[in-house]
Batch of 2 targets.
Target 1
Amino acid sequence: MTHYDEDRLAALLRVLPPAPEAWVRAAQELPLARRGLDEIVARAEADAEFRALLVADLEAALEVEGYERDPAVVEALRLRLANG
Amino acid sequence: MGCVSPENVTAAELVARCRAGDQDAWRELVERFSRYVYAIAGQGFRLPEHAAEDVFQEVFARTYEHLDRLRDDAAIQPWLAQLTRRLCIDHLRSSSREQLEEEPEPDAADDAFERLDESLAVHEALAELPEHCAEILDRFFAKDESYHTIGEALGLPAGTIASRISRCLAKLREHFEGRNPPAQPSGGR
């Protein structure tokens, strides 16, 4: 028989501490990051010079152009440029 | 606050809203399941912090990309659990054979995962409690904060926190058992 007394509920509450705030924030901002990624890829497709800059030094080019250099976005962008 | 009121929205509704591009719903979905995914990677598979973070981000990235593959929106929790477990196992397999040998025993792991599911259900019930109950209980038990810290954060005298915790636990019990009535004995056989 399953019975939930206060001690058991307290123990169950302890089982799920919060995930680190920065991890949660990064996951919550995924849609924004993806949108930024799409914008950069679209621009690279339309602008050969910008694409060359990205291929030569991705992180530096993003910084110069004022884009957020989130590691997950940079990695995703690297893959998309390599496959595009 | 955005368009989503966490207490009133089921996981299935959140998934449907996410699929429709509602960013507030996505934020709430991540908030609601972040502890669960974190616990599977950290407690269930005992991944080191950096590996747990990789798995955590990958789980939500894949979830975001593949929400349209979910056949039943209400099944988001088991879907997340399965995805997290698969990614954890992939990580252990790719990192080293020694670590693979340290994978939890299936029975022990199943118990641990059942406990996480149970805990998530209790946390969901918290959201439906009145007053400051959810916050007080979460801060004290899950975040391990002191009476003093909780009192300061909520503008309550620290001396009243212990009694509030006790009252809130009683409310939680009443509420949780109302949602999940104890199983009846099967007839003595």
Target 2
Amino acid sequence: MSEVKTVLKASDISIVFGGLRAVSNFSCELKANELVGLIGPNGAGKTTVFNMLSGVYRPTEGQISFWDRKDMVKVINKASPAAHNKIGIARTFQNIRLFSKMTVADNVRVALHTSRVVNPFDVLLRTPRFFKDEERMTGEVEQLLDLFKILDKKDELAKNLPYGEQRKLEIVRALASKPQLLLLDEPAAGMNPQETEELMRLIAFIREKFNLTILLIEHDMRLVMGICERIIVLDYGRIIAEGKPEEIQSNPQVIKAYLGEEAVNA
Amino acid sequence: MKNKNLRNMLILGACSLIVVFAVGMLINFDIIDAYTAQILTLAGINAIMALSVNIICGITGQLSLGQAGFMAIGAYSTIFIANSGVPLPVSIILAGIVTAFFGFLIGFPTLKLEGDYLAIVTLGFGEIIRVVFVNLKKYTGGPNGKQFPTIMTLNPAIAYMVIIGVLVLLIILIQNFIRSTYGRAILAVRDDEIAANSSGISIFRYKMIGFVIASFVAGIGGALYAPFIGFIKPDMASFNKSIDYLIFVVLGGMGSTTGSILASFVLTSLQEFLRFLQNYRLLFYPVILMLVMHFRPQGLLGTKEFSFIKTWEDFPCWKDKILGTLKIKKSEKKGGAE
């Protein structure tokens, strides 16, 4: 069997805010079609790692490489979030960030902007190319919304959707840019057990259907242990453990980080 | 689909022609008197300025208090360009481009700022423009201003048709732009910068596009104002003027092109109609503003737009609707009688 393609490789990335070393020497390698979980106690630096991987922060040290659709290696530690999106890294946010005053369909269409074929001239004069491109976008948007069963709400304002569907819409928007790597920042935050269950199925479905790599941050252990193939545990900005869910569950260092010293000795 | 596009274009074309040429002819044959024509044309200029402010404040989501400065640049540059031998129509367009370039230069350092900071910087910019024009006496005539009589100054019908024609053209182009993938990108940046950036949209670039377009439109506004009034002075770049244009947009509804234009026509004519109140009209105007802001803080139209095409499509339904309400009323009456 041939070796599985690597999608992203972070080597020894660190970030310093003032005097605080929020993440130090974080390294990881994500393979194609892998589902990896990033966990850790509050303030461990999970979201900071995400922000570095998606370009919101620039790492102070270290290097992030990404293998794009054509299998070309790109060093992306200094690229902007927009550039990350263009090469195939899409993300969602811990506190939902939708374009609240736009419709559901338009929220997804925004993500299709990078795939446009029109130029400003087509747009100003409404050439046939403009109509054709808009039609293509409408088709893609409706297909995606249909897949996630929110097509009937396409003309509603995003802010009027119920919480769970707002989360869903954010994932749809991320998928619209056809990423290779999807970063989900606490997708189950604020959901009840039943909704979390549904979300687990949804994430598994996305990975199958879109054939992409997913890295997710999550506090809900049931979700993480249930679907992740590999888990990275972060504490105080350092990786303290990495491995399969079963290994992580019995790792004394992880238990210590989550429950304290006494729990390990007990 | 194609037939529908053609039909829509015909509807819009017909409406534009009526607004521009039919009214223009009425002015030409003195059915609408020169005074009213003057007010309408001035309202047209104000509407162009309101369009410009709406692009910055409503669509791009930045607060600019220096649009009058851009207008002044447009006005003075038309005069320079036209005086150096370029035909007037070409110099109007060139003046717009010159202003857009200034917008680009100003935008570079300022668009990285947010909200209040940008407002203060643009405010300063407007004042700088005014002071520069006051002091460059050799070219601008200093505080006494500059004469620029043209055919538009003398013939109200031509002035009306040119200015309202340009207004209609600008509305069409701007609406085309906003309702495209570029427009959605700009709106996305307004709604949530971080999410827009992570969706592949460069924040700075799209803010800049919005800012440059708005400067261009303001430049065209100024470039039409100079030949229409025939006289300009540096005071047109003052802070008060910028606030006036901002008021049109806030009152009409930020983000609504229809609202901005409607408000500029209504408010410009209102100031004239209220002349019989003499100086009390200056009291009346702010009272209206306060009432609107109190009862409809999102502006008269909010973010809604009026659509000629939709009105046309709904036309057959109107009859049913009117009949329907009549029937309801009748049955209500009956119900009340019983």
